[in-house]
Structures are given as structure tokens and as C-alpha cells.
Specification:
- With about 160 residues, the chain is of the alpha/beta class.
- It has one domain: MoaB/Mog-like domain (Molybdenum Cofactor Biosythetic Enzyme, Chain A, 3-Layer(aba) Sandwich), CATH 3.40.980.10.
- It contains 6 helices and 6 strands.
- The chain has a 6-stranded mixed β-sheet, with helices on both faces.
- A hairpin with a 2-residue loop joins β5 and β6.
- α2 runs parallel beside α6 and α5 runs antiparallel to α6.
- It is globular.
- The two termini are about 15 Å apart.
Length: about 160
């Protein structure tokens, strides 16, 4: 069985400056390893559109199988992760984003404020998760059911 590689990007100005620990990134790393992924890279960067886009480009250049971001999906003025992600998506997967919001909605109505995107670029799956620890935990639970099939399809395997 192929060992899939993942790049993890936390977009948080406060965490990148050490104002608080990147709890969401740590939860994301543990969760993705439990799903059998090798972590190719993990970085915490400020909420900056160009930095986020650059890290996504770097991961795409390394041909990782999965790029997950956490943070910057809300509605505050500094939340720009979807805007940094969108230019990299060749195909949008709206059902994935809808599934993430629907699952989160069971716990908090604020889940509907997440503007996170999901899509693919060549054979790489790219997904924006919320920045909250609970949002990341919920995201891993939802994605654990979807990612194996998505990556299988991207590899050209039959249903």
C-alpha cells in the first residue's frame, strides 16, 4: 500500500509569533498520522495571503498527496486562507466543504461561518480546515471517511 504524504499549514499570526501554542496544528498532525499519512512538512505562518499561497505552491511542487490548512477560514479581516487557496484549485469539491460544515454544525452553529474550500490540483487534494481545535478534530473525523477514496480516484483507480 502506498504511503501518502501530507503537507500541513497553520495560518495564524498569533501562533506564528509565539503568542500562543499551535494546538490546532498539533491536533492536525496527530490526526493525519493516525490516518496513515507521512508528514512531509508542517509549518505555522502568519495570516498572509502570499505566504499561504507560497506554502501551498511549495507543497504542490513536492507532489504531496494532501495539503491541509488550519486557520484563517472565518470572517475576520485577517481570515484569508480560502483566498490564498482558491488559485491553486483546478477542481472544487464543494461536497467536502459542505460535509465539514454540516458535521461541525451539530456542535456549534458557528461552523457555518467557515469559508474553507476543498479541491484538487493535479493529483493533490487540498482542504482548508477551521483554526479551532474542535474544528480540526471534527475535520479529521469527516475526512478519514473521504480521503482514501478521493486519493484512490486521483491515482486513477477504479471505484
Amino acid at each position: 500500500m502506498k504511503q501518502y504524504r501530507a503537507a500541513l499549514i497553520t495560518a495564524s499570526t498569533r501562533a506564528s509569533h509565539g503568542t500562543f501554542a499551535d494546538e490546532s496544528g498539533a491536533i492536525l498532525a496527530r490526526g493525519i498520522m493516525e490516518l496513515g499519512f507521512e508528514i512531509y512538512s508542517q509549518i505555522t505562518i502568519p495570516d498572509d495571503k502570499e505566504l499561504i499561497s507560497s506554502e501551498i505552491s511549495r507543497a504542490l511542487g513536492a507532489q504531496v498527496d494532501l495539503i491541509l490548512t488550519t486557520g484563517g477560514t472565518g470572517i475576520s479581516p485577517t481570515d484569508i486562507t480560502p483566498e490564498a487557496t482558491r488559485p491553486h484549485l483546478e477542481k472544487i469539491l464543494p461536497g467536502v466543504s459542505e460535509a465539514l460544515r454540516a458535521f461541525g454544525r451539530e456542535k456549534t452553529p458557528l461552523a457555518d461561518l467557515s469559508r474553507g474550500l476543498a479541491g484538487i490540483n493535479a493529483k493533490t487534494l487540498i482542504i482548508n480546515l477551521p483554526g479551532s481545535p474542535h474544528g480540526v478534530r471534527d475535520g479529521i473525523e469527516v475526512l478519514g471517511k473521504l480521503i482514501p477514496h478521493i486519493l484512490s480516484q486521483l491515482a486513477g483507480e477504479d471505484h
